[in-house]
Amino acid sequence: MTTADAMTLKNLAGARVGVVGAGRTGLAVIDALDDLGARVHLLDARPGAADAVTAPLERVTIGDGGVQADALDETRPDLIVVSPGVPATGPVLTRARASGREVWSEIELAWRLQQARRPDVPWIVVTGTDGKTTTVGMLAAVLSAAGLNAPAVGNIGSPTITAVLEDRADVMAVELSSFQLHTTGTLSPLAAACLNLAPDHLDWHGGLEAYAADKARVYARTRRAAVYNTADAATRRMVEQADVVAGCLAVGFTLAVPGLGQVGVVEDLLVDRALHAGRRSAGLPLASLVDLAHLAPGGETERLPAHVTADALAAAALSLAHDAVAADPGAVARGLRAYVPGSHRIVTVARGGGVTWVDDSKATNPHSAQAALTSLPAGTGVWILGGDTKGAVFDDLVRAVRPVLRGVVVVGKDQTDVLAALRARAPGTPVARIPDGDGALVMTGAVAAAGAMARPGDTVMLAPACASWDQFSSYAQRGDLFAAAALAHVEGREAP
To answer: How are beta strands 347-352 and 284-288 bridged, if at all?
Structure first.
């Protein structure tokens, strides 16, 4: 086989496949390739990466991206399967493109397996800078309420290929990152959505244009509904330019009263004017904002973040593309009521002295932090932010959230850019700086500083607008340490 040959599942038997990355996704890929009879060359930067592999390996290469690219040049595999962390501008993908070698994501392999084994199982897919996990979780809950086995997979949790191999799903609710979409080329979903677009991961993609192009790939070959955000012109353009299957509907979601072809809000109701049979003359009520109250800080509907409502509208639109939900639209309300948010996504973790403590550690970029903070009443927010900035700019974020701020606590090894934005866009706002150190000590100090600023009726929110890697092992660890410190503060004891 030559690199010019098109790779298929049928010719994977005996083929040489380079698998780059042995994390959770990579391990699942290796198991699948072993079942298909491929000869696997594992490449990873971590010593001992092969220790967790149970399938036979033909070769193992340990080293950085340059070392991996050299090894692939030497072995000239028939196919390369890359984990999401492999950057588009890095040596592995750059040289693979230059040599004409075929590169798949785990999603590409999973989709091809799905079509070979159970083509009757549709995929409903979601991407966007923010809100993906919430929307996919809501989507899975609605589909489940309609009586379907609908696992939430992809970037949200379990590798998609694992769910395909288990073969228990009626429909797949799939979260896709721009990383995964970059090397996915044949996916044809039942419905697809890009929720929003804001600068993020630009170092990985090489710029905003490339990032947007990869996000737009979510709509290619969509069969029934291409769902977009009416408030985000970029997502509308993606749909307008997408090569979808004939008959696919463009469906906008809006926080306003919906027009024809949209789902939106009428008073306190989520209403469909896009997908039900009578949409030209009337809207179909799907759910109430009360069905989302458990997702608001303190469980108060009036404090429900706008982006949570938007995510629910997107999930509703996507779910209605499936015949089971279209036949039982009440499943939307049942599913939204049943939806339990994932950890570290606007979760109330403590209350005391009239102060609510909210963990939104998953807000790892300015766009998501802004969405969470602007739900708070004016002058009632104490904001904990900072971390690995990933090259982000914070001026627009600070300008947008300044009206809600009582005070700010800044963490992170390098606080320069965050502090500069606060000085320029929120002068006079009290700011406390927590010096670099052990993650637990950093968060204990941040909570103590925030607690000193807060007053009864306030909300202390961890919405870092930054990645966690400079001081914490993950956003999850950061959120867990915040929750433990907040609870200890409220209870008047030392943090564990």
So the answer is: unpaired
pLDDT for residue 217: 94
Cβ-based neighbours of 234, under 8 Å, separated by 6 or more: 196, 197, 212
The whole-number pLDDT of residue 436 equals: 95
Burial 368-378 (b: 16+ CB within 10 A, else e): bbbbbbebbee
pLDDT of residue 179: 83
Q: What is the structure's pLDDT at 354?
A: 94
Structural domains for the chain: 16-101 (3.40.50.720), 108-338 (3.40.1190.10), 347-488 (3.90.190.20)
Tokens of 348: 């109330």
Contact 187, 123 (CB under 8 A): yes
Measured CA to CA, the distance from residue 444 to residue 43 in angstroms comes to 39
The SS3 assignment for 252 reads strand
Residue 458 has phi, psi (to 5 degrees) of -85, 165
Q: Work out the end-to-end distance of the chain between its first and last CA atoms, rounded to an integer number of angstroms.
A: 58
C-beta neighbour count of 443 within 10 angstroms: 27
Q: What is the pLDDT of residue 87?
A: 81
- Measured N-to-C along each axis, helices 330-338 and 132-145 cross at an angle, to the nearest 10 degrees, of 120
103-105/123-127 β-pairing: unpaired
Cβ neighbours of 385 (radius 10 Å): 28
Spatial CB neighbours of 396, under 8 Å, sequence gap ≥ 6: 366
Could you tell me which of 359, 326, 328 has the C-alpha nearest to residue 341? 359
Name residues of the chain where pLDDT drops below 50.
1-5
pLDDT in the model for residue 391: 81
Tell me the residue type at 419.
Answer: L
DSSP string, 397-430: HHHHHGGGEEEEEE-SS--HHHHHHHHHHSTT--
pLDDT of residue 139: 98
SS3 assignment, position 271: strand
- How far is the C-alpha of 151 from the C-alpha of 450, rounded, in Å? 38
CA–CA distances in Å: residue 335 to residues 293, 294, 389: 13, 13, 36
List pLDDT tens digits, range 120-152: 999 999 999 888 899 999 999 999 999 999 999
CA pair distance 417, 397, nearest whole angstrom? 12
* No. of helices (H) and no. of strands (E), the chain: 18, 20
Which pLDDT belongs to residue 352? 93
pLDDT of 200: 60
Strands (E), 161-313: 172-175, 191-194, 225-229, 249-253, 262-266, 269-272, 284-288
